[in-house]
């Protein structure tokens, strides 16, 4: 089946929704042959990770899995299985490019921590002091209910609330009913999936063209919950991008490049993939009835075009090498290769539990955990961990207590997804215990 066949009459809204692939854009119908298998490289120290990766690739659940796993400040081991795309001979590897979606959020969170550390923002500072339009917010009396039956916000939205998804903001991929429709009609859509014709099947609308317009649009709509009372996955880290550019006096993407990407050595992390780098970009797939279907091939990728605005919640493309360097910088409490990127205090605070008192994550994406600056924070026997995943199957975490960091890259979108993320974490733990004698 050719990519042009995706624009055929056999694709209907009903079939797309029935496929279970829903993250704001769509899915498609069909499949490709697997092609030549590429088995795990450099897998001697991580046999459980290698077996897991080979199992998923061999079963055609994904086209590739690339993992980077390391201790302390040592260079990582790389376990790479599969090709850049099904039916393609080019192997995926350490420098292949992946759409990391919500793994953008910890990067934005740490950018905010830099400004908090420098006194340009305060953790409990009202957002309205930076963006006055948020001074008098209205709140839905019923979560996902009427957008006219409202009450005033009982407290201001703070920077802490934005970092921890407790601001009461919504998300068009999460909310239902009138508020979801209002977000979409207003162009408050901070995520991209495909520019193929199938995108229109979900009627998401056109995103606004700047972070300023995005922030103003959010301020004009009601909150879905009272600030500081509920963990509700949201566009908060996208709004944080606007806060960062106002507080710093720099465009958000320029701030990330200057303050995080360049000093950390993340030269392959982009909001827009340069034409010269598209040969490294993997294909993103939807899953329909067990078949992988290309929804964002490199030659037609939406990430080859300028985004409507730099999306701090889900906008980055990166490599396993680059994201490992980000984790390595965090594991070094702000230092990497002898260079200080963030203060130790900023890292320690940003990777700690910042949830407001009384907020419970039970039953949410962060179930049973705390939340820091854009990422999940482990509690109890998982204390000392910080990280998050992405909608296209990526995942990453740093374990400060054991000096361990791990990144996994793959590309597929389905709802519900595979249990790959949890299986990867467990495989890393098993192999790490074997390497360290269980310490």
TrEMBL record:
<feature type="domain" description="Beta-lactamase-related">
    <location>
        <begin position="88"/>
        <end position="415"/>
    </location>
</feature>
<protein>
    <submittedName>
        <fullName>Serine hydrolase</fullName>
    </submittedName>
</protein>
<dbReference type="GO" id="GO:0016787">
    <property type="term" value="F:hydrolase activity"/>
</dbReference>
<dbReference type="InterPro" id="IPR001466">
    <property type="entry name" value="Beta-lactam-related"/>
</dbReference>
<dbReference type="Pfam" id="PF00144">
    <property type="entry name" value="Beta-lactamase"/>
</dbReference>
<dbReference type="InterPro" id="IPR050789">
    <property type="entry name" value="Diverse_Enzym_Activities"/>
</dbReference>
<dbReference type="InterPro" id="IPR012338">
    <property type="entry name" value="Beta-lactam/transpept-like"/>
</dbReference>
<dbReference type="InterPro" id="IPR006311">
    <property type="entry name" value="TAT_signal"/>
</dbReference>
<keyword id="KW-0378">Hydrolase</keyword>
